[in-house]
């Protein structure tokens, strides 16, 4: 790729050496641009994909097919940002004698709402991950734990998280706790089962190597099984991230204080389609960003996992 | 049979197999016999090569001696003790790569030492020495997926050596190497073997390798594996692969093997 853009390299006598490190000449000449180019191109395709979707919507609006009162196109629901943002001032909204126009600035209100929802997702995800990996490992480690807990966990795992909503409210009332509880309960059972499946998939050879070297059961779990299941567990975490976002929105719609779910509920009750779509756009963006953060984490933490995506793309 | 609470075999025998058999998935409808009636005595410092058609149970026998699997019949003793669990005294080099992908080369080599709780500096030094023996000191800080298949196998050999085992079980360790590298590795293995005074049980499909290395060659029948014959090789090392004696041995082993391989194929076609 870079040899094509630098024809001078093509005639080099050490062409073979240059081919071994195809990026070396490019990064030497354009250190920043070279690194930014792939990021920009990926951002470009994302924008293109979103733009295509919005464009069709706008055209439908221009042709009078999409009714702006029901399906307001992006330029309408994004254009009225300050107008929409004041609804995010959810903490004050319920208080008597406080006007809609007091409190934090519109931007501030949006930020507070996003941070509140995001923190619930993050805390819930963390608690669920730690709990389920710990229980999953304990189930394989101690036969007694397996006998006592696995049947119940298997039985409860197909229960829809929505069914847990009343339980969350009975137990925790209103506030952050029920929303976090909902995330944990929605992810916990699946992630325990996923952990067990990952443990069972660890290469027998690796375990046998540790056994021939005199490793104890605890050392085999700590030094072989846990690192070996880490890549799979991070993938499971990524897949469950979107689930966590969905559950948080449901939990928040019951009234928590601040939160995107509550804004959606308000939009529904006041029949405000612009606000619905504005919030959906925000949620989409947040989900995308949090997945990106997890992907970065995956790359940093799992330095030894080879990147097959490049090979697949080359097919 | 006498009571098993006593030690019937002297602690001077490195490995003793008595009537060893292994049935995989015993008690299910998938049960099949991989090994039957194996009697084998290995002296300390002896170099044994195991030859036999594919699927005859050579790897299985090494697993049993390593203590990774339980025997279905018979007993295995090592230095006077009944083999029941794995032990660092008996190192197994696996047929497939078995390096930990999340550890660097030197951390892989010193994994067994870290299990014993040795400090990092001592481990690194021991790893360096072991890697020197296989000519891979430069690769110390690389990760396994940055190595070629042959290099990975050499790291596995270094890892086994770092444990200073009394019995070295090697399951086709050089199968993935080119002819030249394999010849070098054989010389190197003989050096290490002479220094360490360990007993070696070495599985291979290469008759040349058996002739170059073995004190005794154990030939297995097709599945279920039984010992067909044991061919002693009384030749000083280093051996000349082109000598008349080597030539004659190769011919003898090839003929012994051919009958079994033919039988193994006939059996597989019948299935
Ligand atoms: N873990 C296992 N579970 C069930 N059956 C097994 C297992 N390992 C080996 N076997 C069976 O035992 C028989 C002997 O296998 P083994 O791996 O010992 O053969 P081998 O002599 O090492 O063959 P090769 O030369 O191809 O490596 C085969 O029929 C195989 O299918
Ligand atoms: Mg084998």
Question: Key terms for this structure?
Answer:
heterodimer, A: 315 residues, mainly alpha, MetI-like fold, 17 helices, 76% helix, globular, disordered N terminus, B: 271 residues, alpha/beta, six-stranded mixed β-sheet, four-stranded antiparallel β-sheet, 10 strands, binds adenosine-5'-triphosphate, binds magnesium ion
Global geometry of chain B: globular
Strand content of chain A: under 5%
Q: Provide the helix percentage of chain B.
A: 25-40%
What is the CATH first-level class name of chain A? Mainly Alpha
How far apart the termini of chain A lie comes to 16 Å
Mean pLDDT across the residues of chain B is 89
Main pleated sheet of chain B: 6 strands, mixed
CATH topology assignment of chain A = MetI-like fold
**Class of secondary structure makeup of chain A:** mainly alpha
Radius of gyration of chain A: 25 Å
Task: Characterise this structure.
The complex is a heterodimer of chains A (315) and B (271). Chain A is an all-alpha fold and 315 residues long. Chain A has a single domain (83-312), classed as MetI-like (MetI-like fold, Orthogonal Bundle), CATH 1.10.3720. Helices cover 76% and strands 0% of the residues of chain A. Chain A contains 17 helices and no strands. In chain A, helix 14 (217-252) runs parallel beside helix 15. Chain A is globular. The two termini of chain A are 16 Å apart. Residues 1-27 of chain A have low confidence and may be disordered. Chain B has 271 residues and is α/β, with parallel strands linked by helices. Chain B has a domain at 99-164. Chain B has helices spanning 58-66, 105-109, 111-115, 120-133, 149-162, 179-196, 207-213, 244-270; strands at residues 15-24, 32-42, 47-51, 73-78, 81-82, 90-93, 167-171, 199-203, 216-220, 227-232. Chain B has a six-stranded mixed beta sheet with strand order 6-7-8-3-9-10, with helices on both faces. Chain B has a four-stranded antiparallel beta sheet with strand order 2-1-4-5, covered by helices on one side. In chain B, helix 4 packs across helix 5 and helix 7 (207-213) crosses helix 8 (244-270). Chain B starts with 14 loop residues before the first strand and ends with a helix. The interface between A and B is medium-sized, with 21 and 25 residues. Magnesium ion binds at residues 58-59, 95, 171 of chain B.
